[in-house]
Amino acid sequence: MTEPKKSNLYTRTGDSGTTSLVGGSRTTKHSPRLEAYGTIDELNSHIGLLISHMPSNRDFAPIAHSLLKVQHRLFDIGAALATPTGPGEEPANGVTDSAITELEHEIDRIDSQLPPLNRFVLPGGTIAASQAHVARTVCRRAERRTLSLATDTPVAPEILRYLNRLSDYLFAIARFNNVKTSSTEIFWDKDC
Predict the structure, then answer these.
(1) How far apart are the first and last CA of the chain?
(2) Which of 44, 108, 147, 154 has the highest count of CB atoms within 10 angstroms of its CB?
(3) Longest dimension (CA), the chain
C-alpha cells in the first residue's frame, strides 16, 4: 500500500506579491481583503497562545473550550472574507447570530464572577491576562481592517458584530485571569 503524496508547503505562486482568493481569483498581498483576513489569522494565533497560557483547572476549562470554538469561527470568518462577492451577490458569512449571542452569554457569565469595574484597566498581570489583552487589541485591529474592507465590498454585518463582541469577551477573560489567580489588576493612574 502506498502512502498518499504529501502536498508541498510552498507553491511559489505568491512570490510576485499576489495570492489566491476563494474561487481562484488573485489579489495583491496588501489589498484591504488580505489585510482583513490576515489580521483575523493573526488574532486566531494570539488566541491559541492565550489558551496555552491559561491555567488548566476547572475555573478556566469552560473558557478554553469556548476559545477553541472562537478559533474555529475565526477560521470561518477568514474564509468568508477571502471570498469575493460578485455583483448582486450576498457576502459570504462566517458567523451566525447565535454565535454572537453565545459570546454575549459567555461575557455575562464571566463578568458575574468579577468585581465591579469603575476605573480603566491597564494591560498586564498574569501572562494569560496580558495575552488576552494582546488578543483584544489585535481583535480591534481586525475589526478596523474589516470595516475598511466593507467600504469597498459587501461584508456580512454579523462578522463585524462578532468581532466587536469578541474584543469585549477577551477583555473579560483578561480580568478573569487576574482575579481568579489573585493577581492584582493594574488600574490607570492619571496622576502618576
Answers:
(1) 70
(2) 44
(3) 72
